[in-house]
Amino acid sequence: MHSQILSLVALALAGTSLAATIPNDKRTLPSTSGNQDIINRLTLAGTAVERIAILTNDRDFTYDFLNPPTQRGNSTGRAGRTINANRATFPGLIGSGSSMTVGFLDACGMNTPHTHPRGTELNIVVRGRLRTTVILENGARVIENTNTLYQMNVFPQGAMHQEFNPDCEPAVFIAGFNNEDAGTQQTADTLFRMQSDVLRASFGGELILDGRNLDAFKSQIPANVARGVQECLTKCNIRKRSLDEISRLDRLD
Description:
Layout: H1 2-21, H2 24-28, H3 36-44, H4 48-54, E1 75-77, E2 80-85, E3 99-105, E4 109-115, E5 121-127, E6 130-135, E7 143-147, E8 152-155, E9 160-164, E10 171-177, E11 185-186, H5 187-191, H6 196-202, E12 208-209, E13 212-213, H7 214-218, E14 226-227, H8 230-235, H9 243-252
Antiparallel strand pairs: 1-2, 2-3, 3-10, 4-9, 4-11, 4-14, 5-8, 5-10, 6-7, 6-9, 12-13
């Protein structure tokens, strides 16, 4: 027993010594995130072994969703944020055929309706609850669910969907994709970028939204992640800001 303890102590000391001998530059190399030269070389590499040789720092295979190396591809609004690791923000994914997003939704936070044009999403709740909606295409029925801890939804490629935190405590989800660059298109943001005459024709005439005409409304769609729904805001004693207030706050950020 005594010899076993001595062996464990020796092993621990050896590990400490090994850590001390790792060159500092090994731990402090700049992130490869967004490095176009590295991305190009990884894309052109013929084998996985060649790709690994290009990424010389072991930390190139780790992504920190709490402290992402870049805000590229991320989404931050008044009720939370989504952090995306894809082939550009995390080149270690290149060759894997996959990517991932972590969503942090505050009380009553909504990841507003959107699509992923190049990937199917597997979305699992790791904190709180999520109410989800998905519509695959024209003619398909609306699918709605309330998911609790460690329950998963599938959102097929190109299907419009949303996630909503119906509670007064934060919720967190992890979403995996079968594409290194699944892409994201927020439905309302994209729709209202269309020319006004196209929108008027699509909606059958002049639009009055929140007491204002279409042109005044278009620039005031809240950034994702947004606040909603009114029932949740009332339950959690959260005042719903007007579009004018949201617009002013977004301009200050």
